[in-house]
Amino acid sequence: KQRLAIITSGGDAPGMNASIRAITLKALQNGYDVIGFIAGFHGLINAEFIQLDLKSVDNIIHKGGTILKTARCKDMFNEQGVKKASCTLNNLDIESLIVIGGDGSFKGAQALSEYWHGQIIGIPGTIDNDINGTDQTIGFWTAIDTALDCIDKIRDTADAFDRIFVIEVMGRDCGFIAMESGIASGAQQIICHELISDEADFIQQLLISIKKASKQSYPQSYVIVVAENALSFSTAELAKKISEYTQVDTRSAILGYVQRGGAPVAMDRVLATQLGIKAVEAINKQKRNLMIGMSKGEIITFPLSQTGLKNKTNKDLIKRLEQFSFNLTI
Ligand code: F6P
């Protein structure tokens, strides 16, 4: 029997379990022996794994996190670690490996491909949606919905107090979560790296526009969604600057890790399932060193070596934000 292994690696993302399930079911159906390494590349290095069968993937499609555990594994950035991982795969007679994770995990996968000559297939799983070559990553839509739910709740208190709120969402260095949750929550401002070339000038314009709005009776609540790492100073400091400049009570909130947890929304479960099935099909066709992604609504394959992080001047994101900005003065 041909042996296929799965790992989940890097930041967990809702929908990873749905992907593990789809891969396992499809691979079992195609006659493979399926195993899952524990805690990403750590499991490969330390030969820690479990057998995956019908029972192990039963009733997991709706669960957040990952049944295989995950980790950020620094050892994959040194030769010794990569060689160990490669040895484990050879010793266990594994012929193909599916890596579900983000950019760091794909880098680990590429390092591995230099020593191990089995088939490696990547599946993009990260809430950040920052992987080049795919329009969507597993977990992204769930994170947006979670952020949205929190922003809506904060909007209630912002409205009750006529306060300004600065709300920080995740995304590492990418503004997609801020953009989508900002659009969906009707945020008055969305701040992300992609929009900032000169920070001092950007902040000055922002303060002027907030002050202008605060002098009008509309809107009564003012919500600013900011992507983490977008600014060189903290979200709390931004709130302080706004408060001082406008004389309006301004508070800040960091949504943090809540955005990574919870049951995956339908879109993430479906995407994870589609990508998982396609990954096994790619293995059947003897493909290697590919990422399975989604582009313009189609499931596609993309060279793993060309993935990397989405560019900071991401034009798609800027265009989409422009499309949704109203620029009203009342
Ligand atoms: O990549 C997912 C993510 O949640 C990012 O949005 C965030 O910057 C990072 O992981 C946090 O990493 P850690 O879990 O290592 O603190």
Automatic annotation (TrEMBL):
Instruction: Name the source organism.
Output: Pseudoalteromonas denitrificans DSM 6059
Q: Name one GO cellular component term.
A: 6-phosphofructokinase complex
Where is this chain's protein located in or outside the cell?
Answer: Cytoplasm
Q: Any idea what this protein is called?
A: 6-phosphofructokinase
Cofactors per UniProt? Mg(2+)
For this UniProt entry, what is the primary localization, expressed as one broad class? cytoplasm
The UniProt GO MF terms for this protein read:
6-phosphofructokinase activity; AMP binding; ATP binding; fructose-6-phosphate binding; identical protein binding; metal ion binding; monosaccharide binding
Domain Phosphofructokinase as annotated: residue spans: 3-283
Q: Which UniProt keywords apply?
A: ATP-binding, Cytoplasm, Glycolysis, Kinase, Magnesium, Metal-binding, Nucleotide-binding, Transferase
Enzyme Commission numbers on file: 2.7.1.11
